[in-house]
Amino acid sequence: MVGRTDGVTDNVYSNGLLHHSSDSVEQKLDELRSLMGKAEGDPLRIVGVGAGAWGSVFVAMLQDSYGHLRDKVLIRIWRRPGRSVDRATAEHLFEVINSREDVLERILRIST
Questions:
Q1: Between helices 53-66 and 87-99, what is the axis angle to 10°?
Q2: Distance CA 16, CA 104 (A)
Q3: Are the CB atoms for 43 and 12 separated by under 8 Å?
Q4: pLDDT of 12-64, one tens digit each?
Q5: Which pLDDT band holds residue 92 (cuts at 50, 70, 90)?
Q6: Please, which pLDDT band fits residue 6 given cuts at 50, 70 and 90?
Q7: Quick check: is 78 in a domain?
Q8: Residue 3: inside a domain, yes or no?
Q9: For the CA atoms of 62, 77, 55, 99, what is the dihedral angle to 10 degrees?
Q10: How far is residue 72's CA from residue 45's CA, in Å, rounded to a whole number?
Q11: How far is CA 97 from CA 10, 19, 59, 85, in A?
Q12: Mean pLDDT (the chain, rounded)
């Protein structure tokens, strides 16, 4: 964990990504909810359409950043019917993705 003087705590993952945890994330989410006209108690609903490799990673990153604010945002993923993936398989896929630096670099390039 990396400490900062501005009240933000950064968790550095083994793949080099940072996860910010602070009130500022919740404040930014509140601002977005306000801009979209969301009333108190009416969560912002984010749906990722498509559970392919990129869609799954993107939704997982959103869930990692905002999933702890379930009273304010609900994050879901839609996929076409077919073979379901159990939790253990999904966790393994994320471990593989996180261990591949080239994949992570592509994700970071696309998201910036």
A1: 90
A2: 9
A3: no
A4: 555 554 555 556 888 888 888 888 898 888 998 988 887 777 788 888 888 88
A5: confident
A6: very low
A7: yes
A8: no
A9: 60
A10: 9
A11: 21, 17, 14, 16
A12: 75
d(CA 79, CA 84): 10
2 part of a folded domain: no
Task: Name the domain count of the chain.
Answer: 1
Calpha distance 108→103 (Å, rounded): 9
Listing DSSP states for 14-57 in one string gives TTS-EEEESHHHHHHHHHHHHHTTPPTT--EEEEEE--SHHHHH
Is the pLDDT score of 95 beyond 60? yes
Q: What is the pLDDT of residue 3?
A: 43
Residue type, 65: S
Indicate the SS3 state at residue 79. Answer: coil
